[in-house]
Design goal:
The complex is a heterotrimer. By secondary structure, chain A is α/β, with parallel strands linked by helices. Chain A contains 7 helices and 15 strands. The chains are: A alpha/beta, B alpha/beta, C alpha+beta.
Chain lengths: 264, 326, 381
């Protein structure tokens, strides 16, 4: 099976609060000097793709849209984990683009890549969390779409996937070509690369395409642009009241406060 | 030319709660001077009551679509059914709940309609001729304000971000819309719906106790359940315990999991570093118990205990039992 | 001179750091309080390729250089010095001599098993009368019926309990001192080799330290490692690499001290301020960071020399000397900074203190390292 996994590099979401800042000029998070990682659920998507390849064979290509200079580590890690090939659409504007614009460029890149049975991506990006890229890719590529997929249960002509739902989960039958937006699950915890695979990864092909080329082939389809007026940090007016003492005293103090607040 | 259209669903037989929350968003858009209608999609005898609920909350026209394929999780069927409905309603603004189906439907609808799109909104309002939507970004650390000027506009609203509005009954009418959907032609089809064990509706509970990575394993949750039981609450978890398989995924609270707004939320062994805070920040009172005084959860907690939950929670249980005289 | 790590080295560092943080750190304290061989962790480390880092890929290893080994060892030791001891012995004291001195048959027979973790290895040099005076080995190796027969007692053998393979140094030639020693590859399944005392230690508790007994232990002739009488050369070459690995271990332990002290200085408040506001604390942390960085750079330099095939005995000794003394000093400082909490087993610093001490002793005491360095300084050799 031919699988393409879309990866996005984001500033580490586990960044300590003191290192988090919004750049007023771009209305986006300051990336300069901050550690970059593969967006959380994109790693799960990659793991699902690799597990599928382990099971039934095929090829896993990773596709990323972003500044090529910063993408190296993410691509190398994905290849070390087991992806076969990588495509980087070199786009220095990517951190500013919203999901709709990204989906348009990714769709053009996917068309250029040629045939694929499955496109996997994270159900949401760890930074902007719009949850749109998966469904928009499906529309642009005229493919089936399922989001919040936690695992692929079965493959035999059609796919049976498990989708996380509000009340539990659904088993959904999907006909390829399909776009699956993946969420985390105990079955898809991303594998750690073997150290020797980190070395051999450098022999795997990495293609870099300038965004202008890809944009030239992009369609006009998809939602319209919206304006991001501002991104603000909410005022944290609540100051935490710490209860001190040994555990017994802390517990007593908490019960007291909760009673005062009429919560107990 | 239409107005605001609420995409209301009754895919499990009765009107979903988030459909009514959307009516609240529609009210917030009143300054745009548009009529509010609803597209009601579902199947079964409950649809009549669902339409009545919408009328009771001020929606005048309900375009009702009843089809046996409009059931839980059937996004492709919903999209297919919306085609004739929207052709009839011709809305300028579409409001969709960002639930299991809405998350898939809203962006795809926006693509098909060439509409402007804002997803996962926690607030929607009108500003002159434009729609202003707010959404959480960066794991809940910041709030983005988006302005949508072009029409049509599609907005998906986070369930439970807003309250169900007060009733405002109107004399409404129902227009039934016929739709034929070829089940074989649906690219994705739900084969089975599996519900997970939940002792207590996590989203309805007034007291919720959440466990995180700091619990160290599934055993820790037994203590939390005991405390929750005493306090009449529910137990949830942040992402790491569900990823590790310590507890079912349906227990997860956070941006990917459920958003909750209980009166009291107690976070145990949860660092609060990622999206978990976004899922609980609406709670009225947040208590955090954690060994690390630098844990980000303390920046949103009202009451904090720095300590080992293995000592603190049993002490709490003892105190509450004492209080209850048990 | 490029002080930056290559992309590969950075990725390896990140991958092992994540492995250590997610899978070793959570159980490190428990492995020390209830000592036991960490079988699952070692198996996981093996699956990631950490047990045969420098073994060529054709033998199932990762085919990495000495610098990669040093990076990996530091990351592992930061989480648990005990776990890392098991792994560094495998790499530096067992795989390395087989790589450098083994015949093609010996390499094919043993390296794949060691690299995949199927077999664990141990290194038997020290004896009751041969500690710092390592060349005073008394274990005898005699030829009998086309085989070698070994008799003697080896002490303080790391991994000795779990290992399937032992590299044993024994006196095979009439020549006294270093020239009479040969190295042998002894499988635990050979008749006459057994585990004697199992030692209880101050630190690195999850790694076993045992006595190995050789009583008419029969070893096939083809299991001689290197030439007859070449044993000292094997041992000393191995120790160069071993010392670099221990230097990395010490850097890892010291870094654990620094990171925990920094977190503590930020969280702990006394006299109305966090500890980090006090100049004495600031200076202690500055000294710690500086000395750790210096130790790390010495370690990297020694690894770099060895990778080039250059002589590195004195530089390896410098790295091990400085790193081990830094680790001990940092751990001492850390316990003090934590105050009462530094003395309590709920907090990790007392474990760092106990773990750090061994780095000043094994694979050549600090006194021996000074001897080696002074020879270089005074005699140019």
């Amino acid at each position: 099976m031919d699988i393409v996994v879309c990866l996005k590099q984001v500033v580490d979401p586990e960044l300590p609060a003191r290192d988090f800042a919004i750049d007023p000029a771009t209305q986006r998070q300051v990336r300069e000097g901050r550690p970059l990682v593969i967006s959380t659920y994109d790693e799960n998507a990659l793991e699902v793709a690799l597990q599928l390849k382990d099971r039934i064979g095929g090829k896993v290509t990773v596709l990323t849209l972003g500044p090529a200079a910063a993408s190296g580590d993410a691509i190398r890690l994905a290849l070390a984990m087991g992806a076969d090939e990588a495509v980087v659409v070199d786009d220095s504007e990517a951190p500013q683009r919203l999901g709709a614009a990204k989906a348009r460029l990714l769709a053009a890149a996917l068309r250029r890549l040629g045939r694929f049975d499955l496109v996997l991506c994270g159900c949401e990006s760890a930074d902007w969390v719009e949850r749109v890229v998966g469904p928009l890719l499906a529309e642009a590529l005229q493919a089936a779409c399922v989001t919040f997929v936690s695992r692929i249960e079965q493959v035999d002509g059609t796919l049976l996937v498990r989708r996380l739902a509000d009340e539990g989960f659904h088993l959904v039958e999907v006909r390829p070509p399909a776009v699956l937006a993946v969420t985390s699950d105990e079955s898809n915890r991303p594998r750690l690369p073997k150290v020797k695979d980190i070395m051999t990864a450098r022999r795997k092909p990495v293609h870099t395409w300038p965004v202008a080329e890809v944009a030239g082939q992009a369609g006009e389809e998809g939602p319209l642009e919206v304006e991001v007026r501002q991104v603000t940090l909410p005022e944290r007016t609540a100051r935490c009241e710490f209860l001190s003492g040994d555990p017994g005293e802390q517990a007593a103090a908490l019960v007291q406060r909760l009673r005062e607040l009429k919560l107990l | 030319m239409g107005g605001v259209c609420v995409i209301a669903t009754a895919l499990e037989g009765t009107l979903s709660r988030s459909s009514l929350e959307l009516v609240g968003s529609a009210r917030a858009l009143q300054p745009l001077g548009l009529e509010t209608a609803a597209a009601l999609l579902g199947h079964g005898p409950g649809l009549a009551g669902a339409a009545a609920e919408l009328h009771r909350h001020g929606v005048g026209v309900v375009y009702r679509c009843d089809h046996p394929l409009l059931t839980a999780g059937q996004s492709d069927a919903v999209l297919a059914a919306l085609q004739p409905v929207l052709a009839r309603a011709q809305p300028q603004v579409l409001l969709v709940a960002a639930d299991t189906v809405g998350r898939e439907v809203a962006p795809r609808l926006a693509a098909r309609l060439r509409a402007s799109l804002a997803t996962e909104c926690v607030q929607v309002e009108a500003a002159q001729d434009a729609i202003v939507a707010r959404r959480q970004v960066y794991g809940g650390r910041a709030l983005a304000t988006l302005v949508l000027r072009a029409r049509p506009a599609v907005l998906s609203v986070k369930p439970r971000a807003l309250d169900v509005p007060d009733p405002a009954p109107v004399d409404g009418r129902v227009e039934d819309v016929e739709v034929s959907i070829d089940s074989e032609a649906l690219p994705a089809r739900v084969r089975q719906v599996l519900r997970e064990q939940a002792e207590f509706g996590l989203e309805e509970a007034q007291v919720v106790i959440g466990g995180g990575r700091g619990l160290g394993g599934p055993e820790g949750f037994a203590l939390l359940r005991e405390l929750a039981h005493l306090m009449g609450g529910a137990v949830g978890a942040s992402r790491p315990p569900t990823d590790a398989g310590w507890v079912p995924v349906s227990w997860q609270i956070g941006q990917t999991g459920k958003t909750i707004r209980p009166a009291l939320y107690i976070a145990v062994g949860i660092s609060g570093a990622t999206q978990h805070i976004a899922g609980v920040s609406g709670s009225r009172t947040i208590v955090a118990i954690n060994r690390d005084p630098e844990a980000p959860i303390f920046s949103v907690a009202h009451l904090g205990i720095v300590g080992d939950y293995r000592e603190v929670v049993p002490a709490l249980i003892a105190r509450v039992k004492e209080l209850r005289g048990t | 001179m490029d002080f930056a790590l290559s992309e590969e080295h950075r990725l390896i560092q990140a991958a092992v750091r994540e492995f250590a943080a997610k899978e070793i750190l959570p159980v490190a304290a428990d492995l020390d309080h209830h000592p036991r061989f960490p079988a699952e962790i070692i198996a996981r480390a093996a699956s990631l390729g950490l047990l045969g880092l420098n073994v060529p890929q054709e033998y199932g290893g990762a085919g990495l250089d000495g610098l990669a080994n040093v990076i990996v060892q530091e990351e592992l030791a930061r989480a648990s010095a005990g776990v890392q001891t098991i792994i560094t012995v495998q790499n530096s004291l067992v795989c390395d001599p087989i790589l450098r001195f083994g015949t093609p048959e010996q390499k094919s027979r043993y390296l794949p098993r060691l690299a995949t973790g199927e077999w664990l290895g141990c290194y038997c040099l020290t004896e009751p009368e041969a500690g710092s005076d390592a060349m005073a080995v008394r274990t005898r190796a005699e030829q009998r019926d086309g085989q070698w027969v070994l008799n003697g007692r080896k002490l303080f053998v790391t991994n000795g309990l779990e290992a399937q393979l032992a590299i044993v140094y024994a006196r095979s030639e009439p020549a006294p001192g270093a020239r009479g020693i040969s190295a042998f590859l002894v499988e635990k399944s050979f008749p006459g080799i057994s585990v004697g005392r199992v030692e209880q230690k101050l630190g690195i508790k999850c790694s076993s330290t045992v006595e190995i007994l050789l009583e008419d232990c029969r070893v096939p002739a083809e299991n001689l490692l290197g030439e007859r009488g070449e044993g000292a050369r094997v041992a000393l070459s191995t120790l160069d690499g071993g010392r670099i690995g221990i230097a990395a271990q010490a850097v890892g332990i010291a870094r654990a001290c620094l990171e925990d002290c920094v977190a503590h200085a930020q969280a702990r408040q006394q006299f109305g301020r966090p500890l980090k506001a006090f100049q004495a604390v600031q200076w202690a942390l500055a000294d710690m960071a500086t000395r750790i960085d210096a130790a790390r750079l010495l370690t990297y330099r020694a690894a770099w020399l060895r990778d080039r095939g250059d002589r590195c005995t004195a530089e390896a000794a410098m790295a091990k000397l400085v790193a081990s003394e830094t680790a001990m000093w940092a751990a001492h400082r850390a316990v003090q900074l934590f105050g009462g909490y530094g003395y309590i087993q709920d907090y990790p610093v007392e474990r760092y203190f106990r773990d750090a001490k061994i780095t000043e002793i094994y694979e050549g005491t600090s006194e021996i390292q000074r001897l080696i360095i002074s020879r270089q300084v005074l005699d140019g050799r």
